[in-house]
């Protein structure tokens, strides 16, 4: 696969935006852990914000949030929730340089084609200020595939992810935690939670 995004996956979110928004639940534990490491009012970019629940939480805590999603329909759902416009931004269109103290990417970079992930991670790293923090989560596995809803996943192993992050540049720390969860497709999965800090 050479496209910088997966059209079938985006079509799924375009066609199911309202239903996905209704399903989305607040899981603030990891988000609060992430926010606790940032200065008050820090500038945060959210990638693949979906229905906007995490951006709503960050905004309510006083952070300066830029919510974005690659699907115009999902962005519209998030705009409804947040009461303000939400940008349509595909990961590979991210072009910011040293603007953010934090980048939050929950359950979205798992849709990036395997051969494109290094480039997207490098873009995220470039968008961070020195010392900035980056969280992303992935469904674990040992090679790309689609779920029963036809969504593409890169299904990484921990070692493969570490290689992709290293390919993107230097991080002063990189921690990976795993837990079990159930996705929108009702399947139990192992989630890899990756928190990386850009070197100062
Ligand atoms: N982060 C939200 C959450 O935790 O509920 C949404 C997660 S949902 C599983 C994945 C999101 O990634 C969808 O909203 C989808 O539109 C977005 N997405 C998929 N591919 C994308 C791409 N190439 N660029 C930007 N967003 C993308």
TrEMBL record:
Keywords: Methyltransferase, Transferase. GO terms for biological process: methylation. Signal peptide: none annotated. Gene3D superfamilies: Vaccinia Virus protein VP39. The keyword Hydrolase does not apply. The keyword Nuclease does not apply. InterPro entries: Methyltransf_25 (IPR041698), SAM-dependent_MTases_sf (IPR029063). Residues 44-132 form the Methyltransferase domain. CDD domains: AdoMet_MTases. One of its GO terms (molecular function) is methyltransferase activity. PANTHER family: TRANS-ACONITATE 2-METHYLTRANSFERASE, TRANS-ACONITATE 2-METHYLTRANSFERASE-RELATED. This is Generic methyltransferase. The lineage of its organism: Bacteria, Pseudomonadati, Pseudomonadota, Alphaproteobacteria, Hyphomicrobiales.
């Amino acid at each position: 696969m050479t496209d910088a995004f997966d059209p079938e996956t985006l079509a799924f979110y375009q066609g199911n935006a309202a239903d996905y928004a209704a399903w989305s639940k607040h899981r603030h534990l990891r988000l609060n852990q992430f926010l606790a490491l940032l200065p008050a009012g820090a500038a945060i970019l959210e990638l693949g914000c979906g229905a906007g629940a995490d951006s709503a939480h960050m905004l309510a805590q006083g952070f300066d949030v830029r919510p974005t999603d690659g699907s115009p329909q999902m962005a519209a759902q998030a705009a409804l929730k947040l009461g303000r416009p939400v940008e349509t931004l595909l990961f590979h269109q991210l072009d910011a340089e040293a603007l953010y103290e934090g980048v939050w990417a929950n359950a979205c970079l798992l849709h990036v084609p395997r051969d494109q992930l290094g480039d997207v991670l490098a873009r995220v790293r470039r968008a961070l200020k020195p010392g900035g923090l980056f969280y992303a989560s992935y469904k674990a596995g040992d090679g790309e595939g689609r779920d029963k809803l036809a969504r593409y996943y890169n299904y990484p192993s921990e070692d493969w992810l570490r290689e992709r992050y290293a390919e993107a540049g230097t991080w002063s720390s990189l921690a990976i935690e795993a837990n079990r969860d159930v996705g929108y497709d009702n399947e139990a999965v192992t989630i890899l939670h990756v928190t990386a800090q850009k070197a100062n």
